[in-house]
Amino acid sequence: MSKVQNIKGMRDHLPQAMLLRQHILAVVTRVAERFGFEPLQTPVLEYAEVLEGKLGDEEKLIYRFEDQGGRRLALRYDQTVPLARVVAQYSGTLTLPWRRYAYGPSYRGERPARGRYREFYQFDADIIGSSSPLADAEIVALLSEALAELGFPGFTTLLNHRQVLGGIARVSGLDEQAAGGVYRAIDKFDKIGAAGVREELLRLGVSPAAADQILLLVQIEGEPAAVLAELAGRLAGDARATAALENLRAILVGLAAMGVPAERYRVAPRLARGLAYYTGMVFESITPHWPEGSLLGGGRYDELIGQFAGRPIPTVGLAFGIDRLHDVMEELGLGPRASSPATAYVTIFGAELAGASLSLARELRAAGVNTLVSLDPGAGLGKQLKEADRKGVHYALVLGPDELARGEVVLKDLRNGEQRSVPREAVLAAMGAEG
RNA sequence: GUGCCUGUAGCUCAAUGGUUAGAGCGCCUGACUGUGGAUCAGGAGGUUGUGGGUUCGAAACCCAUCAGGCACCCCA
Fold first, then answer.
1. CATH numbers and ranges of domains, chain A
2. In the sheet where A344-346 sits, what is the strand order?
3. How far, in Å, is the CA of A263 from the C1' of nucleotide B72?
4. Per residue in A103-150, pLDDT tens?
5. Residue A368 CA to B5 C1' — how many Å?
């Protein structure tokens, strides 16, 4: 390797990107803690056998290697399997139900594309050890508040249930074996359309009559309650699907009671999601401004967490894709776009006035104002203001001989170009007053 | 991992196989003041992703490789 570069599919996040990412993380964390979720962090490395056998054929995407001691290690593929390990390992000290959130990188050896990377950051929130539909509803409420506070316009969360899909497959005369391929075909509906899905189903060996039946059921749309009623009628012969629809109904009641606006979610029987371990409700949040895919997704997986503990531990959760949220927000112009966390820049008029400027900067910082100070007293005001401008700082402060003599400071608003001389002790108030 | 498309200045892009690879924006210096953006003048910046090959001659054509994008696959 002669060229200096980073690894394919893994990115450096320069300051402007980091400020937006930190904003996203701060908002999502705030919302999660508002719901009482507790933080957890686990290592990015796990013993390979911890990750193996949980993900099916996706295991080819796991980064694996040996350390110097010959131990077989793997980079975590998501934060769900490590969670299962933690729940088993600390079963004596954790009281269920447990709400936990986790933030950090995960790794998949995929072909990179826009919004998909080999190192990607996720914020996971899960409720471990509750099968209540209120837990499902709470996860959806959390995500709705987070996306709203991030400023996403017109997002919607699509809700479905694995056993509704199962019921659709069974009613159409398919057995469980065929189900996986059928789910994946259905999941492509928004991408390839009804005709495309039909073609795919036929290719999987589904009879034309069954394919038409599946397509009919999967395209049911409308008010959540109406969709549920329609499905209930058509899947009445299937006990598991009927129970699943009852479960979805209870979740919808919870969502309404939690104050989630009705336009923020709908029941979509065509939503499948690829991950094999989901057992109950599944969901995905989408926005018309990002047709490429979902902003986030999740669902209920009652089997996975208990695999290490040796007993079923019902769990529902979601993962925010920080990278994807970042890409979409950047494209839509949402969130902060500054390249510096500073809001103030203190100029230094000349070497002999450096002390006065530095103590002004110290006062601002003591009051909690992020403050940059010039490092080059000889540079001239023009150059210093240019630096302040380029950093996207809101205010520049000038402390020259005249101001010093009068005990004042020139406060310049770099956004509108207005400036005025204010008494030094009133600087903070003046900045606060102008936002 | 498979197929297709693309890599030229910091960014967006030009340049029939033929002089010394250009432009806009950005960047640096200066002109105007105790002051950013605007205007004007000047300047820096390139082994054309990398390595081979074809040719009298390659940014262009061929092969390999690396990286990015799109479609499979899957998903955040």
1. 15-332 (3.30.930.10), 344-434 (3.40.50.800)
2. A371-373, A344-346, A395-398, A408-413, A419-423
3. 34
4. 999 999 888 888 889 999 999 999 999 999 999 999 999 999 999 999
5. 51
